[in-house]
DNA sequence: ATGCATGAGTG
DNA sequence: ACTCATGCATA
């Protein structure tokens, strides 16, 4: 080995050439070794339509938590809570989707419903650290409420869910395995390709530029999830 | 359970 | 044009 004019589009083919041997070291995760810029610098909470978590838990919870916030931000504690949460949720015979909808009925300020996806991700720790911390007190509140009501109350026959119908469903793009492998190889050497490079990659893989751009964005987010971030 | 997507907020 | 929280659609 002893050649690599990998500038610009030359590196646009980490799979079909021997350059992969040097450019895409397979194995575990990508080798991006950056880590500064903590999370806290952002405004932390935003929201839009459905969900609406207002602020980080800086005053609620127990007085103990207020004394040492580290208890709430400790990945270990979050992990333990997530597991307990799931276990007790199942014990209550409630689905992830049920929990999401029930959150709206909690009437907590700035807290609306969440999707099954989000509840699932909370339980499996596949959310960012900050996201986990923001959701914990809310889910904890729901859990306590639900268990309290389970003691003296019983379910009431709520209205059967009716699908609105008539709405054109969104179609989910599916990236084929070979293309996916190429993208992963590119990502390994350059997690944040420029717009031009994205265009070139899209061209090469015969995918829409936007699809490729979003793929990289999602890939970056993945790296930051608790499960992937080696912070526990 | 997870892939691809949206939109608010930020720069 | 990115990050981040979140969700629809689907495996």
Notable features of this structure?
232 residues; mainly alpha; 49% helix; elongated; disordered N terminus; DNA-binding
Task: State the gist of this model.
With 232 residues, the protein is mostly helical.
Describe the structure.
This protein starts with 18 loop residues before the first helix and ends in an 8-residue tail after the last helix. Helix 9 crosses helix 10 (209-224). It has helices at 19-23, 63-67, 70-73, 75-91, 96-105, 116-123, 129-152, 177-189, 195-205, 209-224. The protein is built from ten helices and no strands. By secondary structure, it is mainly alpha-helical. Mean pLDDT is 75; it is low at 1-67. It binds a DNA duplex (11 and 11 nucleotides) through helix 6, helix 7 and helix 10. Residues 70-147 form the POU-specific domain. This is POU domain protein.
